[in-house]
Amino acid sequence: MLSIFRQYTFDDSFEQVFVSNKFLKEYQIALTFATDYDEDDHPTNGIFRPTWDLQKVTPEAIELFKEKGRSMDVDVKVFISIGNRGTHQPFKPLDNKTWIANATQSLTNLIQCKELNLHVDGIDVLYEQIDASPGDFIQCVGQLIKNLKENGVITEASISPTFNLNKEFYSRLYNAVSSLVDFVDYQFQKEVDFVMNPGVLLQRYNELTKVYPRRKLLAGYSAENEDWTTLSPIVFFLGGMDILKKRKAPGISIHYHNFYAQSSPQQ
């Protein structure tokens, strides 16, 4: 049985999900993304704004889903994912001190905003492109997580490494603030070398447990076709089953949206 399932989404596709304590204990909604770029793609140096679909992801939708979870004895949590996909809108602070202050205040405002009131439990850090030094990334993101937790704005935090950035950035960030990081959601769809069979995936997970505690290490994947270049869905499904059974991982995550919706997400 899964302990945790996380869904990355910019819409209300979580409403289509059946939740039951027969299958899992906790369901996490990770909203993508809060970004510190304006609508013209200019960096705002830590002033974050939501880019998920505000018309669909409403306080009512979140509360109804949380209530459905409670009725099935499944804990539902909401994370705001800060970051980017691909090379668009990378992590690029203009100066660290101001970025930290702006990010702390803007995310506090976003999470505690009475109009949004999305019952946010935590933040997730998922940058696939970082145009800064490892030291800057660790200082800025580490202090942001610390500020939000110490101020009682969030109760949980996660980081979501990718292959290219794991060693220099994410593993060092984890070592710096390990006591403040509740989950590490490794994004397997971003592997560089082709993953031919489930055994390779299990081996890679085993290697990661030398860096991150297994009790925190989720196996992440994407349902988006463009992310299947090096890892097919069937290989992840079979490998994921082995990771859950043999390595007793706490859970998995999937990037999934309602692709059949007529309207596009708000940007």
From TrEMBL:
SUPFAM superfamilies: (Trans)glycosidases. InterPro entries: GH. This is RuBisCO-associated protein-like.
